[in-house]
Fold this sequence. Notes:
By secondary structure, the protein is an alpha+beta fold. The protein has nine helices and 21 strands.
Amino acid sequence: xxxxxxxFMLVDAPHSALNNAGSDVGERTDNIVKVKLIRRxxxxxxxxxxxxxxxxxxxxxxxxxxxxLSPIERKEKIAFTAANPVEYADDDIFGYMRALxxxxxxxxxxxxxxxxxxxxxxxxxxxxxxxxxxxxxxVISQIxxxxxxxxxxxxxxxxPYEHEFYSTVLKGIFSLDxxxxxxxxxxxxxxxxxxxxxxxxxxxxxxxxxxGDRWVMPKDVRIKRAKEAIAVLPYISGxxxxxxxxxxxSPKFLVLAVLDGGNHIFMNIAxxxxxxxxxxxDALKEVINDYSDCLLTNIxxxxxxxxxxxxxxxxxxxxxxxxxxxxxxxxxSINEVVKDFVEEIPKFIK
Length: 350
């Protein structure tokens, strides 16, 4: 089975409007910005789209670890990256889809010497993202606050405007398939047609080795990309309305482990308790015990001091309960636990 880093995180959003839906046709005025909401029954839950989370993640990898991001090209109504996971780590980790158009025969080439390649034939290359993530969704239902303001620095009548914001805790999950980082396929199958002839030439130049129908990047490159993709978590930044709200979107509570399999076992460990977010210790214990044979590492739990301090003693009790078991609980600050966890990753990169 696939070896996956699995992670669960909570983001504190005490006065935020991190992902907006624009104006609403049914509103009394056109000059209002609505937050994104998902509904369950009669309740509404603010959320940040998975795409927005990935944008923050990629952008922070560029600023923190100086990733050279794949250049974006736009043609008419579509946009795409270079679809080059060999030279650009973000194409490797975040995946891509690009249609390759037919090229005209070069005038310098003799027709008899002309050899078609994938670029000249056209076709589509795609890569399933090794990094998968959910949207960030409020644990507790919300009725967003409607904030009224005016622009009055100009001559004449002031211009009114409105926007929504909320106070909540957002939860999200993610996984990173370690068996696919730095490994590229040439299968005629959606998601696995990563390569084409020109890219294969580049891969060979960069030290990748061909193994059947796949190309494998050097081990040190694969380890670096996998480690940095997780090591960036304490530094993730981004989000809309940062000028008037300034929300720190880095995780304030984090659970990490490597699992032999694709199920996300930490998905349901957050719950509402008297209109407050908390962690269900019973739910956490249950999945650790039920999947102990699939867990390949200890369970790493990070918490930022000042956030959900009331669960501190409960987690310390969990640490003590598992200290003599095969899979232990490692409990530290967010930065410390991420630093320790990423040192586990190289043993799973073959």
